[in-house]
Amino acid sequence: MNMKYLNVDTEAIKEHIRTHIADFSRHQGNEELMDTVSRFSFCGFQDEFREARERGELEIRREDVLCFETDRPGEYIVNTTRIIDHDAVNAASLSDAEVTGRRQCRQLDRFLRRHVPGFQNAVLEFTGPRVGVRGSRQLSGKYTLTAEDILERRSFDSVIAHSAYPIDIHNPKGVGTDSRFLSEKGTYYSIPYETLYCEEIKNLLAAGRCISASFEAQAAIRTTPTAGALGHAAGVAAALAAKGDGDVSKVSRNELQKRLKEQGAYLVL
């Protein structure tokens, strides 16, 4: 359950990280990015988070605070709640997840104002319109993207999208996050068209987090920018298939890639 804030003091956060860099492992060795990025993101405050959980102020079963600045300076998305042991395809369970998420947001709002520099005068714009689901049902497609495809940056002739987001597995049982980054900075991996369709239904295309991918690979490709690129590819492919007999497997890969690039897709062939 994400939260969005206005009027966050970014410079106060940066100064705290600079003067307590030993407490921010993800920022160590990358301090210069704080002064060069156009939009700031940060992850940390593990000790404060753990102590708040021990005092009973937080029920969130994770280990740190994760925030992303938007295109509006001082506006941040807080991606820190963790709702586990719920089933996104069960209506009663999903409803309970909504209640749990709102409760965690209330706890987190108090925590941020008390313990995170820069949030003392922040304005909570809203919490998410609904609980965010990391995974539920997925397509079993013509090809299933794997962790090895991502980490080894395998190339595909039928590539329709790229991403550089790491394999980011949030412990489904509680505290802990396993992140596996690409070994070389500035690189990215590819996603083939065959992950968007299956052999059983000729006129069906999937896009976003429900494409054909292993659990580990899905933990990398489920983010918004990648889902948007996959949606773009699925939309163009659907239009091309509709000009034929509707069979998405027969869509010309070359024509699909050509149209995507003409429409501004970031696609390296």
Describe the structure.
There is one protein chain. This protein is of the alpha+beta class. The chain has two domains: 3-127, no CATH class; 147-262, no CATH class. It contains eight helices and nine strands. It has helices spanning 10-19, 33-36, 46-54, 91-115, 147-151, 215-221, 224-242, 253-262; strands at 3-6, 41-44, 65-69, 76-78, 123-127, 159-163, 167-170, 177-180, 189-192. A five-stranded antiparallel beta sheet has the order 2-3-4-1-5. Strands 6-9 form a two-stranded antiparallel sheet. Helix 7 (224-242) crosses helix 8.
Provide a compact summary of the structure.
The chain has 269 residues and is α+β, with helices and mostly antiparallel strands. The protein is built from eight helices and nine strands.
Percentage of residues in strands? 5-15%
Instruction: Tell me the structural class.
Output: alpha+beta
Order of helices and strands: EHHEHEEHEHEEEEHHH
How many domains would you count in the coordinates? 2
The pLDDT mean sits at 93
Extract low-pLDDT stretches. Answer: none
Task: List the keywords.
269 residues, alpha+beta, 2 domains, 5-stranded antiparallel β-sheet, two-stranded antiparallel sheet, 8 helices
List the topology elements.
Blueprint: E1 3-6, H1 10-19, H2 33-36, E2 41-44, H3 46-54, E3 65-69, E4 76-78, H4 91-115, E5 123-127, H5 147-151, E6 159-163, E7 167-170, E8 177-180, E9 189-192, H6 215-221, H7 224-242, H8 253-262
Antiparallel strand pairs: 1-4, 1-5, 2-3, 3-4, 6-9, 7-8
